[in-house]
Amino acid sequence: MSNQILYFHYLYRLHYTFDSVTNICPKMADTPVRFGILGCANIARKMCRAITLSPNSVLYAIASRSLEKASSFVLENGFSPVEVKVYDSYEGVLEDPDVDAVYVPLPTSLHVRWAVLAAEKGKHVLLEKPAAPNLAELDRILEACECSGVQFMDATMWMHHPRTSEMRALLSDAQRFGQLKSIHSCFTYEADHNFLQNNIRVKPDLDSLGALGDIGWYCIQAILWAANYELPETVTAWRDPEFNEAGVILSCGACLHWKDGKVATFYCSFLTNLTMDLSALGTKGNLHIHDFAIPFQENVASYHAGSQFRIPMMSEHAVANDLPQEALMVSEFAGLVKRRNGDGLEPPEMWWPGISRKTQQVLDTVKASIERGFQPVEILS
């Protein structure tokens, strides 16, 4: 299926999801999706709030490796054991017949085990990024989800903000933007000493991709988004990436090339002051964002667009949102789950798994270029 067809298919799905109350099978319209969360990672705290704010979901269960930790997590996040079940094992959530979907914020090295098992148990899977350590493991996850007929989505939240849809319309407007020529993304933050010594994202047995997986995933997916998900022809990693003593990437960058002459660059780092920039340059216009991954304000996000005049003229556009982007993501995912559960016949939406797979392909190719001495590496479709 072509990228253009996929895009219009996606727009249709967006409309279907946002209008879920009237479009979902009547017996499902008033039934929220019941979420279980595997693990009590810090990001899970934000997702507890997102699930609660989402109009079509409810937090149903929390699992940890100890009942005490799971119970404390529930209370610390404003719930009671009456509202939310607690389990002392991830299997407990997956065996619960009342859990519809699971959010998995576990270390990347554990994704394939628990996401595959969740799919086999009939649970829809919202998986924290990076989705997998490599494409082979992600393909195992996606295959399990497809075979079990459950929905898959990675938890890249900014993709679900209304600003993203508005910017997509700009990039697709030939009169205003013209032909896309180059894309540049940058996501960095300065990690403290404790992070660099103890965080799971710097441990090779937990998150071996380091900064490339944690924030490089955002950069790569943003580039693909701007390019309408057309994969580049080659990827060349920049020289002199930084590693910790265990060999985990702390900073790196790469250049991407397309057959039609488009070019993109990205840089990600745990060692540089906070930056979340994305720029897309066209023949007639341009687009600039300074907080593409996490908007500086929760209820409004801005971007700057340039005109086609010779003298640069930038205009700021603010896009309001009723819910924070993580709640919008949960709402969209839950809408897809409700459609699947509504009549039992609707197949899982393949748009989001396709985006995750392409992101993982590029990420793997960056890593391959680093390992091959920063040589250009071809991406195989």
Automatic annotation (TrEMBL):
Superkingdom of origin: Eukaryota
According to the entry, every stretch annotated as the Gfo/Idh/MocA-like oxidoreductase N-terminal domain falls at 33-153
* Molecular function terms, GO-annotated: nucleotide binding
InterPro entries the record matches: Gfo/Idh/MocA-like_OxRdtase_N, GFO_IDH_MocA-like_dom, NAD(P)-bd_dom_sf
Concerning Pfam families, the annotation shows: GFO_IDH_MocA, GFO_IDH_MocA_C3
Q: Which residues form the GFO/IDH/MocA-like oxidoreductase domain?
A: 173-287
What family is it from?
Answer: Belongs to the Gfo/Idh/MocA family.
Q: What protein am I looking at?
A: Uncharacterized protein
Organism, per UniProt? Answer: Camellia sinensis var. sinensis
